[in-house]
Structures are given as C-alpha cells and as structure tokens.
Amino acid sequence: MVADKYIALTFDDGPDSTTGKLLAILEELRVCATFFLCGERVRSFSNEAKAIADAGHEIGNHSYNHVYMNELDEEAIYSNFERAEAVIIEVAGKKPPFIRVPYVSYSEAVVKVAMTMNMPVIGCDVIGYDWEEAVDETKIVENVLASAKDGGIILLHEPYEKTRAALPVIVNTLRLRGYAIMSVGELVNQKQTTLQAGVCYNAL
Fold first, then answer.
1. Closest residue by Cα to residue 99 from 81, 87, 116, 124
2. Separation of alpha carbons 59 and 191, rounded Å
3. 137 near 162, Cβ under 8 Å?
4. Which residues pair with 5 in a beta bridge?
5. Backbone φ/ψ region at 171: left (φ over 0), alpha (ψ -120 to 50), beta
6. What is the rounded CA–CA span in Å between residue 133 and residue 16?
C-alpha cells in the first residue's frame, strides 16, 4: 500500500535495560523512530544509547535528569540541556537536532534557551498515555489511533512492556490506513519544512 499520510514516532525517557527489546521490534517493523534521551540515563545505559544510534534511529535531547523546567531559571535550563547534549555526543556520537522538554512543560525561559542553543522544540499531538498505570496495551493502541493524523507526532515511552506490545498493532494499523511511520527528521523532510529555533512543534 502506497502511503499518502506521514506520522512521526517518538520515544521518551530512555535509554534503559529494555531498550534492546524495543529496537528489535522496530527493526522487525522496519521503522526508524526518534528517541528523546535523558543524559543521566545515557551515562547509565551507554551500550543501549549506542545501540539506538547504531541502528540508525534519530536521537533528541530530553534534558539531563528529567526535571520540571518551569521550576528552573534560564541558566539552569541551559546547563541541563547542554550537559545532556554533551553526554549524547560522547556516547552515541550524534548531536541531537531537537530538544523535548520533560513533561512537555514549557516556559518562556525554555523558549529562550532553545533559541540560544539554536534548537527547535518538539512536542506531540498523538499521545499514548502509556505512563498512566490504568492504561493497558489495548488503551495505548486506542489512544494513538484515535488521534493520529497526517503530520502528527506520536509520544510513547521506552520502559514499558505494554508499550512494546502495543507497537506492532499501532504500526500495522496505521500502515493499513495509508500512513508511513518515520522519525521526526524524516517527517520534516517529507513535509519540506524548515524548523525554527525556539519554536515548539506539536505536529508538522
């Protein structure tokens, strides 16, 4: 089936000990995704972070230690993202092209830091809510499919078994609906869009 719609797949809060399982599923599904990694976890799970890069996936900056940015001043926010970027480059060998704010919680200071770092900010508009305890595999699938749209950005998280279980159903169903699933960078290219530093994009 020829795709006529495009959607980005992203994973937050990794890497962790289960990253290899997720990478195996993505390889089987032939999907390239964007992983928004936390610097502290990259340091702790360096082999897994390198495996993400080696598999050809895109890596974004999800801060160093996943704190609420709206509680920090501009200097502290900059330091947090800069520290994460340095670790990601050191371990994975890739400079993140985007940042995503922990808890998708933005402030004016975050926008200023993103502009200073010359970074677009990636949000989301298709949310699995997989971090909620009451949300099971079936509900994750329902949440994503109900809000999927052309140019959308799917938010899922690395550590959950239920998310890995939901992923093949999500990908295969979206493909049947005419979607191509890809990384944020691939979606940017597909939409022939130029992202601006300091601007948050929930969809393209």
1. 81
2. 20
3. yes
4. 179
5. alpha
6. 19
CA atoms within 13 Å, Cβ hemisphere of 173 = 14
Q: Are 123 and 152 in contact (CB under 8 A)?
A: no
| Residues annotated as catalytic (active site), given as ranges | 12, 157
Please give the single-letter amino acid code of residue 127. Answer: I
- The half-sphere exposure of 20 on its side-chain side, counting CA atoms within 13 A, is 5
- Interstrand relation of 121-122 and 179-182 (parallel, antiparallel or unpaired): unpaired
- What are the CA-CA distances from residue 153 to residues 38, 92, 145, 187 (Å)? 19, 23, 12, 9
Could you give the CA distance from residue 202 to residue 194 in angstroms, rounded to a whole number?
Answer: 14
Cα gap 137→182, rounded to integer Å: 21
What is d(CA 45, CA 17) in angstroms, rounded to the nearest whole number? 7
Is 153 within 8 Å of 12 (Cβ atoms)? no
What are 45-86's pLDDT values in tens digits? Answer: 999 999 999 999 999 999 999 999 988 999 999 999 999 999
Instruction: Extract the tokens encoding 151.
Output: 């140019």
Architecture of the domain defined by 5-201: Alpha-Beta Barrel (3.20)
pTM of this prediction?
0.97
